[in-house]
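RETRY 2/3 - previous attempt timed out on the joint model. Re-submitting the same 313-residue input unchanged.
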Amino acid sequence: MNGIKILSPATVANFVCGFDILGFSLQFPFDEIFLYKSNDPGIRMNRIYGSKLPENPNKNVAFVALQALLNKYNNNKNKIIGFELELIKNIHPGSGIGSSAASAAGVVFGANILLGNPFNTMQLIRFAMEGERVSSGTAHADNVSPALLGGITLVRSYQPLDITKLHCPRELWVSIIHPKIEIKTSDARNILKQKILMTDAIRQLGNIGALVAGLYQENYELISRSLEDVIVEPIRAILIPAFYELKIKCKKIGALGGGISGSGPSVFMLSKGNYTAKKVTEMMNRVYDPLRIDYKTYTSPINKKGVQCIKMI
Ligand code: HSE
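RETRY 2/3 succeeded.
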């Protein structure tokens, strides 16, 4: 078999209080990736549907992640191989739901299978993080980890890289709104403060610890109370139209809480159960309808598997 079809999921980074360390994977939307092994060295991007991505290969996330994997694989081998790639981008770049991570995670996951699984998941995460580096200027792992591991993940440490998968409560559902405005991750990172107050650190650490406890206990009230970010959200919220109105109105009708998805502009809210999540998504529509901003909404469970191979070609 020389080819593979991959579904690579959208992801929500930060999980409100866990900037750069927490993230989870969504069932919808996802990118479709076709990858073919070739005896010609190098990587050829044959077709990209659904989005215009950088033509310069060194700025293209999928290319850079795959190249990182190939560099390692081809090193010390007599037979140098390459790949051909087709991407169907259903996750809009710049949406804040891990579009670049889906491309990066999907290609390295597929390449690893085509090569006979020479790399473990932690190595795949590292290759995919190289894609994130070109996209946002920082090799953050909070989107690529849940994309590759599925479910909810925690980056305990970046140096050395130490990532763990957390328990996912059975009834946790996600509502997402993607306002079609552009926020570059690099810009959304540059506006953040480099130093924080001790009092804010204490509050944030309490929330992160309690959120993880709430996930394991499947304690939705504790999860709800822990969905608070006193460090990043107060700075970034100004970039997103009607952000606080969304939060207040969605919580009023039963959402557990939520916040900015990654660096925005998407906003996510969590609910217990599909029924409440759908009501919350409808509320998001109602808040955005009068604003004259194009937007898209999704309702999704948490995707416990992450990136998947759906067929060999
Ligand atoms: N943790 C990153 C950030 C995610 O918030 O900048 C970017 O998608």
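The pocket of L-homoserine is lined by residues 13-14, 19-20, 136, 140, 142-143, 185, 188-189, 262-263 (CB under 6 Å). Closing ticket.
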